[in-house]
Amino acid sequence: MFLSAGVAFEANVEALNLVETTGNYSRHRKIPYIWRDQETKEFRVIYVPAISGESLAHAYQELLVEEATRIYGGEEKVPVCPDCKTGEFFKSMNKAHLRGKFEGDPSKTSPDNIEKEIIKKCLVEDIGGFLYAEKPPIKRSSSFQFSYAVPVKTTALLSTVEPQLHARHARMIEVKKKSQKEDESTEGEVQNKERKAEEQMLYYVEAGTAIYGFVFNLDLEAIGKSSYDGKPVINDEEIKKRKNVAISAFARLVSSRQFGAKLSRFFPAGDIVSLYVAVTSSPFSVTSPIYETAALTTAKRLNVISNIFKEEVRFYLYESLRSVEDLKKFGFVKISETPEEAILHLLEGEKK
């Protein structure tokens, strides 16, 4: 089975993806973006705030660990390597990080056997892939994909980035000995003045505001299987558990919105405005939610696939910005009133 989802969310005053700090100024990620003028029909490039797929993928992999701990019933039972458990996704990139997952000399072992041992020992590397950069080189592609989160077309010109001024205060206490010599005292006064200047630090953080949309794809059939011969590496029950973990982690990502940077003081004001998930037998990507009629277009595409290839398809939908009347004519569409309800229908449907 293949799962593809489109998510659109409103985020006001967010700092989810900062790219660099110069002095006391932190910049938000911006990207070139194609926009079409509806009056002149001309295309032009504008620069808009964005959130990288790497940022979303990192949060998803952290949630893989959390959901695995819950589903497996305890941290001791979870097949996750020590690095991934702490959110350090080095994966099996070299001998040092391969240790504990493969015993023996990698250079004298076939790549497929090394991959099998890693799959058994680490659920995150099974689902998220890895690249072993020593001999023999081994690449396991990730079974999930994230696009960048970028502004939707209808509001792209309204998306903005604006620096916000903040001040950080620190109380500094100098304790001096009365017996200090005069020259030492003078030196201490200079240092004291320098420290007092540091007591209040002004800094700027660029905050973005936009309605973002991104696509998430998950190849459930790749989980627990060798990328060399396609055969299962673990038993069917374990594969079923890992598939459940992969879907649940995505559900948690959407519901909690625990992705991106600076959530402790810049948690975005907003909510999920659109969520739709297609489940198919073969690989299929939903139409990006940056387009106004993305859900309807996706449903039409699924209908064609269902008729031509006689393939079973399912489509779970939550939509708050526009009418869903045109989608009700498709028998495979399940419409929900909240994002969580759509996720619940997805989880229940894929457990069968």
Automatic annotation (TrEMBL):
Protein's GO biological process: defense response to virus
Keyword vocabulary terms for this entry: Antiviral defense
Matching InterPro entries: Cas7/Cst2/DevR_sub_I-a/Apern, CRISPR-assoc_Cas7/Cst2/DevR, CRISPR-Cas7/Cst2/DevR
Chain segments carrying region Disordered: 174-193
Listed Basic and acidic residues bias regions: 174-183
Function: CRISPR (clustered regularly interspaced short palindromic repeat) is an adaptive immune system that provides protection against mobile genetic elements (viruses, transposable elements and conjugative plasmids). CRISPR clusters contain spacers, sequences complementary to antecedent mobile elements, and target invading nucleic acids. CRISPR clusters are transcribed and processed into CRISPR RNA (crRNA).
UniProt xrefs under PANTHER family: CRISPR-ASSOCIATED PROTEIN CAS7_CST2_DEVR, PTHR37459
UniProt-recorded name of the protein: Type I-A CRISPR-associated protein Cas7/Csa2
